[in-house]
Amino acid sequence: MNPKQNKTILVVDDEEHILELIRFNLEKEGYDVLLCENGDECIPMIQNNKVDLVVLDLMLPGMDGIQICKKLNRMDEYENLPIIMLTAKSEETDRVLGLELGADDYITKPFSVRELIARIRAVLRRSESKQDSSRYENKEKSIVVKDLIIDVEEHTVSIDGVYVELTLKEFELLKMLSENRGKVLSRNLLLDEIWGYEYFGETRTVDVHIRHLRRKIGDDKSNEYIETIRGIGYKMK
Length: 237
What we know:
Blueprint: E1 8-12, H1 16-28, E2 32-36, H2 39-48, E3 53-57, H3 65-73, E4 83-88, H4 92-100, E5 105-109, H5 113-136, E6 143-145, E7 148-151, E8 156-159, E9 162-164, H6 168-179, E10 185-186, H7 187-195, H8 204-216, E11 226-229, E12 233-236
Parallel strand pairs: 1-2, 1-3, 3-4, 4-5
Antiparallel strand pairs: 6-7, 7-8, 8-9, 10-12, 11-12
Helix pairs in contact: 6-8
Keywords: DNA-binding, Phosphoprotein, Transcription, Transcription regulation, Two-component regulatory system
GO molecular function: phosphorelay response regulator activity; transcription cis-regulatory region binding
GO biological process, one term: regulation of DNA-templated transcription
């Protein structure tokens, strides 16, 4: 069964054969597809079209994928735009940085078209689920854990009255751990809930985000808030 119609995927890559390969297969699956070969043209194309997801190569002429992620992350109307990065295996550092900047998933070249389509479906489902829940859920109050205050409505975090700047994924991780305080949450569960992975689980993504989250809330040495449960996952104390 084809996915819901009228979902538009923007594919940004400077290799023409990759663009055509992805377009052919996505159109066969029922998606509308836009193509872009230059990083400088990516954001104007997003602004001029209704784009539901971006497949973004990291290495591009003009603005590169990391710069694009940073710019979109600073734009309120696009900070939640789903992004799947295309990376080379040697670009691990950039890949991790892209995830920290809000990218939802990544796939390494050379890639399986079937895997890419599966990941696109999963990320879109996760995005739709978030939109539906935010549309209908009642306004939630702040979550307080010791000196940590998480304002769910405003998406802000403070410790002792000092604002802490978190990425979207870091905020969602902290919120989920706080809402389930005292419960052990496995890495795979966190992946599924925060990133929408339903297969090909990359648990290192969770570890990287937890490490950066701990540092930002001053928990990297004291372990006052988040506890690592060896071989399983994490819990909020």
